[in-house]
Amino acid sequence: MRPVTATTPARRTPRTVLVLVGCVAVLALVCLLSLAVGSKATSLPEVIDALTGRPDAYLATVLDARIERTLLALGVGAALALSGALMQGVTANPLADPGLLGINAGAAAAMVTASAFFGVATGSTASAWVALLGGGVAALVVHMIGTVGGGGASLVRLVLAGAVVAAVLTAYVQGLALSMPQHFDSYRFWVVGSLGDGGLDHLRSVAPFLVVGLVLALLSASGLNALALGSDTATGLGVNTLLLRVTALGAATLLCAAATAAVGPIAFVGLAVPHIVRALVGLDVRRQLLTCLLVGPIVLLGADIIGRVVLRPQELMVGVVTAFVGAPVLLLAVRRLGKRAA
């Protein structure tokens, strides 16, 4: 090996490593802010002292609740970001995400139905199964509508079918909530998307689904890189494209349904985060998925912190914040696609 001299440039640190280190640092800061911000603000020094020492009883109770909320946001944010990256990779459509393709709405409709008619509690293991079933059925319906008339499921058809299914299911959820007011309070915060009522119990109930979805997502990463070159090229490289699509879409459905069961449908995280990640680490799906595990929680926790601050001492639910932030991201993505098409 040649020594490094004045004429031999030192090896540069890979950009992905720098990005990951930066994301870890930002995530640590956001987690500390999440522990400090609430209806009553707590300074960062107080939080650090409480974590490293013995806080008073009140502060300990507050921090326990905020720690559970932060951990829940970490799991849900990572799941939604991974789900969106998988959907965009499989469909080769940068506008695809679980919400636009109906999975969010299907999981929400199933959960609301189970809660209203069968007394299934949100955040329970049973709710995760219900949300998974609803999300899977919605995804199947979207695919069937997208293939009507033959010729396969084009990207435009899938997006339009997802928008129709999501609109119908959202109207169903709203109608059910208005017609059964006695059940409305039990899920009105959940159906908008809120971390406020969640905790470690909700996270534990959906953890098996998150783990399975994560494993399937990582197993699909290399195949999605090949699929980005085209189905024919991927097949020529030895990739079973049908199995790959089923695995990746199954992982996306698992992750999205589990996140929805835990905290309710949260829009735009799965759409926005993959765009941010691609700008940071490029087109390698393996790097994207790894970075999504960090950027997703950063975005969701950041939105949750904003929701706690803007209406203090009241709280704006995180699903509302992500909708306000995500809508401009969607418009920018559509504008960029329009420029490319031109």
UniProtKB/TrEMBL annotation:
Gene3D superfamilies found in the cross-reference section: ABC transporter involved in vitamin B12 uptake, BtuC
CDD domains: TM_ABC_iron-siderophores_like
Keywords for the protein's UniProt record, in alphabetical order: Cell membrane, Membrane, Transmembrane, Transmembrane helix, Transport
GO cellular component, one term: plasma membrane
Transmembrane segments annotated in the record for this chain: 17-37, 71-90, 102-121, 128-146, 158-178, 209-229, 249-277, 289-310, 316-334
Membrane topology according to the record: Multi-pass membrane protein
InterPro entries: ABC_BtuC-like, ABC_transptr_permease_BtuC
Protein's GO biological process: siderophore-iron import into cell
Subcellular location: Cell membrane
GO molecular function annotation: transmembrane transporter activity
Family as reported in the entry's similarity comment: Belongs to the binding-protein-dependent transport system permease family. FecCD subfamily.
PANTHER family per the UniProt record, alphabetical: FE(3+) DICITRATE TRANSPORT SYSTEM PERMEASE PROTEIN FECC-RELATED, FERRIC ENTEROBACTIN TRANSPORT SYSTEM PERMEASE PROTEIN
Name the record gives this protein: Iron ABC transporter permease
Species of origin: Janibacter limosus
